[in-house]
Amino acid sequence: MSRKTNRSPVSLDLRSELLQVQNQQIAADRSEYILKDNCNAAPVRDRTGKIVVAISMSAFEYQMTLSFRTRILPETS
Predict the structure, then answer these.
(1) Where are the domains of the chain?
(2) What are the strands, taking DSSP E only, across the chain?
């Protein structure tokens, strides 16, 4: 797997990151594919807990600050 930016996860980094996404139920890309671009994704579940769709948002760093992401992303538990 080749890096797209200097922040792209590879090999063991990727495995660790996938486990983190599985536990938190939210995925985050911080300049890993496109420099200065942030993307967040989360599953949307039905009444039974089954994942039916996913939703994501993407914006450049200057448009989506950490405090903004913290306010709009759902809490995970």
Answers:
(1) 11-72
(2) 27-30, 37-45, 51-60
Please write the tens of the pLDDT for every residue from 25-72: 888 777 766 667 788 888 899 999 999 999 888 887 777 776 776 676
Domain 11-72 CATH superfamily: GAF domain (3.30.450.40)
Per-residue pLDDT, averaged over 2-10, amounts to: 64
Q: How far is Cα 52 from Cα 72, in angstroms, rounded to an integer?
A: 20
Are the CB atoms for 38 and 60 separated by under 8 Å? yes
Residue 36 sits at the vertex; the CA angle it makes with 7 and 42, to the nearest 5 degrees, is 75
State the sign of the Cα–Cα–Cα–Cα dihedral 11, 13, 15, 17: negative
Q: Which one is predicted more confidently, 20 or 50?
A: 50
Side-chain-facing half-sphere of 24: CA atoms under 13 Å:
15
